[in-house]
Description:
The chain has one domain: Cytochrome c oxidase, subunit III, four-helix bundle (Four Helix Bundle (Hemerythrin (Met), subunit A), Up-down Bundle), CATH 1.20.120.80. The protein is built from seven helices and no strands. The protein has helices spanning 3-10, 19-51, 58-62, 65-89, 93-124, 137-168, 173-203. α2 (19-51) runs parallel beside α7, α5 runs antiparallel to α6 and α6 packs antiparallel against α7 (173-203). The protein starts with a helix and ends with a helix.
Amino acid sequence: MSAAAVHSAIEPAETPLTPDSWGKLGMWIFLAGDAVGFGTLLAGYGAMRATSADWPIPFDVLGINLTAAMTFLLICSSVTMVKALEWLGKGDRAKCRMFLFLTALGGAIFVSLQAWEWSHLIHAGLRFSGNPWGASLFGTSFFIVTGFHGLHVTGGVIYLLAIIRYVANRPQAAASYNAVEITGLYWHFVDLVWIMVFTFMYLL
């Protein structure tokens, strides 16, 4: 056997990009750009806090009981997202749709609780351009960062509801597996970002 033949035998064949892999690549590129956006916002928040002499202590102003519950809820929604993909892999579209719905429900409850938190803080005096506890940029950064994340969760809920319909209309579970997997990438990213937001803006 020639050297070229041996090389050909052991060289793995190149796998061309498929529509499924293009979809995942597109989502990863989107998430990478989004990560830069969130990273910039959190870095700006850190810079403002570090250079402010009267920055409020977030733990005292915001409290964490409600937000900790919201965080736990969002983590649980990541678990249901994993279960949805797991059941779809087993060919059970009905259970997949159920867990996708539970994931969307968790996201909807999260956004509702965030709206309640906003209304409570606004009633207490927190504003986009000021607050009664110190630096005016505290309110600006809080509403921008949490609002930006809230928009992502809202978009994710709509995305999940669309995927539920997509799965229901596909005759074969395998035909929608890639779409659910891509949805999971987005949802896990949103959850991970919230853990960072919660840590930086509520705990530290």
